[in-house]
Give the backbone structure.
Amino acid sequence: MFYAGSAVKGNLFTDPFPFTSGTALLSAIAMTFILGPVEELGWRGLALPLLQRRLAPIWAALLLGVIWGIWHLPAFLLSGTPQSAWSFTPFLVGSVALSLMVTPLFNASRGSLLLPYLFHLQLINPIWPDAQPYDMIFVVAVALVVVVLNHKTMFRSTGAVTQVIPAAVPRSRSGDLTGDTSP
């Protein structure tokens, strides 16, 4: 999606590599391994299950996508950030579309945070070309395909993960989920 957007933007082969040294590249990649998981603990580990208790996954994903996009608004207002050179509206639309993509991954994995983490990790990969705002066209197109392919699970609450961070659920001695929170 990022390469296709960059091709449309016309900078696929013209933008220089954004890092001047291997150390700078490794530092940027190390940061992505921290930022993605920290955010996903909140977005998919807490917020999405809570929203899916009351809403079908499609509506939970749409609402969470709007919140996710607005969460990043300060980066657009700070000079020196990559986002300060972007338009916020395409980013917001893209956040909603990305939320529509990651929600079926999260639900299909029965609440595992690994897939959302890896998804987020590749989104913020520092070596992608700058394709803003054109990459959002492709992101929205892929999101629509994901919704169509997963329409049975996106529009029904059956199968939606509603347990907050499932790994923290107490288990019986046999390993079954007990749902009992008493000590």
Summary: Confidence is low (pLDDT under 50) at residues 178-183. The radius of gyration is 18 Å.
